[in-house]
Amino acid sequence: MLNYGKKLLSIILPLMVLWSASAFAQDRAVSGKVTEASSGNGLPGVSVAVKGTTIGTATDAEGNYQVRVPDANATLVFRYLGYTTREAVVGNQSTINVSLQTDARQLDEVVVTALGIERSERSLGYATQQVQGDNLTFTKEQNVLARLPVK
Asked: Rounded to whole angstroms, how far apart are CA atoms 28 and 21?
């Protein structure tokens, strides 16, 4: 009977150690709100990513987000076009609210070439053509009869 107890203990003890190690290694949820610094309004579509991983999410219409982080040493990176990028170390926080400031640098015109390489218009050695937003929705009537006035 004593050998049976030792065998059972030798099986249960390693399982308990593995279970406790996995319980401490579980990721946890971090949530918060991303706002604009000047107005305090929530920013929709802000990219919230865990630095050095492929884990991430985007804020909802009110600027709220929720992401699961692997450990307390994780750093969240907040990116939004036209605003400065911010980083925040998670630590023992479960709520991280961030306010982003507008980026002082202006967005220059970008030319996308046929190969998908982006360059400024001045650096190209050939002519470029601009397409205005109104021209994207403008269509000419293909049927001549449809262009005639109806009486």
From this structure: 15
Tokens of 68: 């699961």
pTM for the whole structure: 0.56
Q: Can you give the three-state secondary structure of the chain, one letter per residue?
A: CHHHHHHHHHHHHHHHHHHHHHHHCCCEEEEEEEEECCCCCECCCCEEEECCCCCEEECCCCCEEEEEECCCCCEEEEECCCECCEEEECCCCCECCEEECECCCCCCCCEECCCCCEECHHHCCCCCCCCCHHHHHCCCCCCHHHHCCCC
pLDDT tens for the 151 residues of the chain, in order:
556 666 666 777 666 665 555 445 567 899 999 999 989 999 999 999 999 888 999 999 999 999 999 888 899 999 998 899 999 999 889 999 999 998 876 555 556 666 655 566 555 656 666 666 666 566 666 666 666 666 6
